[in-house]
Amino acid sequence: GDSVTQMQGQVTLSEDDFLFINCTYSTTWYPTLFWYVQYPGEGPQLLLKVTTANNKGISRGFEATYDKRTTSFHLQKASVQESDSAVYYCVLEPSPNMGYKLTFGTGTSLLVDP
Amino acid sequence: EAAVTQSPRSKVAVTGGKVTLSCHQTNNHDYMYWYRQDTGHGLRLIHYSYVADSTEKGDIPDGYKASRPSQENFSLILELASLSQTAVYFCASSEEGGYAEQFFGPGTRLTVL
């Protein structure tokens, strides 16, 4: 079945470090992909969305790049701040025959030390 | 102000007891969802609904029921709570299905003892 994989369970950085979170997907079509972010004590919220048409999304200083050749969807930020500490989920849009179900990765917990 | 609210925010239940988690949205969205969050599993879909008085099973519906009495309200019901249902539960809404943005509530932390 369709799936997304986030191998990095936890990432610890210092302020101003470069962030790179890896995500790979497995589908039989070219999906729209999302990054959702969950801050402590809150529900997830959409960070950015990337379709097959544009291949790249930018929001709040984060950039996500969609690579069909390697079926990857990485999230990066040039300089992280303590306020970026959160869990980041790579999310796959529903498959054509699966209606409304988003598929969430297992999440990458980012801790930024001040 | 929050567009998706959940109640209670935290609950302790006994094994075998009945638990009802409530969700209310003011987004005027047709679609609503219940997810469960566990460490190492991310978010998994339990039930969803795209119209009042109708619910659909998600990936892990066993042991859960859902009720959508109106567009604004969506409940998750655990008829016989079990230890394995200890988790954080999130409700979400979206204007459409598919790749529409989902708006999440703050979550309910359920502990079953």
Short description:
Chain A is mainly beta. Chain A is 0% helix and 50% strand.
Helix and strand content put the structural class of chain A at mainly beta
Count of helical stretches of chain A:
0
Radius of gyration of chain A, in Å, reads 14 Å
Question: Low-confidence parts of chain B, pLDDT < 50 over ≥5 residues?
Answer: none
- Biggest interface, and residues per chain? A-B, 21 and 27 residues
The global form of chain B is: globular
Measured distance between first and last alpha carbons of chain A: 41 Å
Low-confidence segments of chain A: none
Specify the biggest β-sheet of chain A.
6 strands, mixed
Oligomer: heterodimer
Mean pLDDT metric of chain B: 94
Helix content of chain A: under 10%
Could you characterize what this model shows?
The complex is a heterodimer of chains A (114) and B (113). Chain A has 114 residues and is mainly beta. In chain A, 0% of the residues lie in helices and 50% in strands. In chain A, strands 2, 5, 6, 10, 11 and 12 form a six-stranded mixed sheet that branches. In chain B, 0% of the residues lie in helices and 54% in strands. In chain B, strands 2, 4, 5, 6, 9, 10 and 11 form a seven-stranded mixed sheet that branches. A four-stranded antiparallel sheet of chain B has the order 1-3-8-7, with no helix packed on it. In chain B, strand 4 and strand 5 form a beta hairpin. The radius of gyration of chain B is 13 Å and the shape is globular. The relative contact order of chain B is 0.34. At the A-B interface, strand 6 of A face strand 5, strand 9 and strand 10 of B.
